[in-house]
Amino acid sequence: MPRVKAIQSRMDRADPSVRLLRLLHRAGEDSVSGQAMADGLGCSRAAVWKRLSQLREIGYTIDAAPRRGYRLAAGPEDWTAPGILARLPESTPLEWLEVFEEIGSTNDEALRRLVGPERAPFACLTRVQPRGKGRRGRAWQGQARGNFYGTLGLRPDLSPEKLRLFPLLAGLRLADLFRERFGVAAELKWPNDLLLRGRKVAGILCESVADGERTHALAVGLGCNLNAPTEGLPAELRAHATSLAEERGRAVDTEEFAASVLEVLLGVWETIRREGAAEGEVADLWPRLAAYRDQPVRILRETDAEEGILAGIDATGALLLRRSDGSLRSFHAGDVSLREG
User: Fold this and answer.
1) pLDDT at 138
2) Quick check: is 6 in a domain?
């Protein structure tokens, strides 16, 4: 599948431009001298000036004052690879990041990279995603700029059983992030949709390559409505969708959002690798962050549908439905909606 040329050539976490932006971010409103930058990067002041010029070319406003140094006055309108990496901790395990202007599917791109020799973990992000995917082969509307479309690529080398809680834990932690960092009352609609006031704002899609016993490649995709107006969505989706900017009443810093999401997903990956840690955290987060708890719901599957009270989840992450006779039935897949009437 052809792809549009990347905005920024692939950037590693240790690239000097990333380290330079990190120094400027840390300084805040203060200036950083050219010599301090040169010392921090282990290079000449001429090399620092060259890097600053490159950052200005991709949209960063960097003020310079004699005898004071340089100050980051503003960032570009759209996210950049160095800008996102600079907002991640220096200790991040993310090896590299690439931002595209347009690509069909970041999950497809990540899986393509994962079957090759690329270092992992890595991330592929795009400003426009015309062929985004949702669960069960559905399309994700990704033509609008100003939203988040991205994928974290991992090489787990773990059994599928050990990875079963990844999507659920990722959704719960992202709901928690939305609440703590962005001030909105996000909830997780099992298994992988994030809701704000009952309307969808984001969705998670995990795709993998496995041989039955081991998962060799895992693409963790997230699509989130950030700043693009929902009026641009198809009519059948508009009533059920919202954006983070609409709910909080102001625009979202896309680089801050991207870095925050990647940090959360990388943290989920670390938790999954620790035996038993994911199960305990899911049990703790579910009562506070799950949508439709103890409410009448309808679960629609490809072959049937059933109604009952959403009673919780079991240790495997399966949804528990309490039926009218009081018995519990577990579901590992299906679409959940509130039951009307």
Assistant:
1) 56
2) no
Find the CATH number of the domain harbouring 316.
2.30.30.100
C-alpha 188: how far from its chain's center? 14
pLDDT of 2 reads: 42
Q: Which of 51, 74, 97 is the last residue of a domain?
A: 74
Residue-wise pLDDT for 138-182, tens only, equals: 555 556 678 999 999 999 999 999 999 999 999 999 999 999 999
CB 244 within 8 A of CB 184: yes
Query: What is the distance in angstroms between the CA of the first residue and the CA of the last residue of the chain?
Result: 47
Asked if 128 and 210 sit in the same domain, the reply is yes
Which range of residues forms the domain containing residue 246? 88-289
C-alpha span between 214 and 109 (Å, rounded): 21
3-state secondary structure of 280: helix
- Please tell me the predicted confidence (pLDDT) of residue 240: 86
Residues in the chain: 341
User: Could you give the strand order of the β-sheet that contains 319-322, starting from the edge strand earlier in sequence?
Assistant: 328-331, 319-322, 305-313, 296-300, 335-338
DSSP H helical segments within the chain, as ranges? Answer: 16-27, 34-41, 45-57, 81-87, 106-114, 166-182, 235-238, 244-248, 254-273, 277-289
Q: What integer is the mean pLDDT of 179-190?
A: 97
Closest CA to 127 of 101, 152, 104: 101
How many angstroms separate the CA atoms of 257 and 273, rounded? 25
Contacts with 84 (C-beta within 8 Å, 6 or more apart), sequence order: 97, 99, 125, 255, 258, 259, 262
In the predicted model, what is the mean pLDDT of the chain? 90
Q: For the segment 58-86, what is each residue's pLDDT rounded down to a tens digit?
A: 999 999 998 899 999 999 888 899 999 99
CA-closest candidate to residue 218, choices 234, 227, 207: 207
289: number of Cβ within 10 Å: 21
Q: Is residue 3 one of the residues assigned to a domain?
A: no
- Do 173 and 181 form a contact (C-beta atoms < 8 A)? no
- Tell me whether residue 292 is exposed, middle or buried, using C-beta atoms within 10 angstroms of its C-beta: 0 to 12, 13 to 18, 19 or more: buried
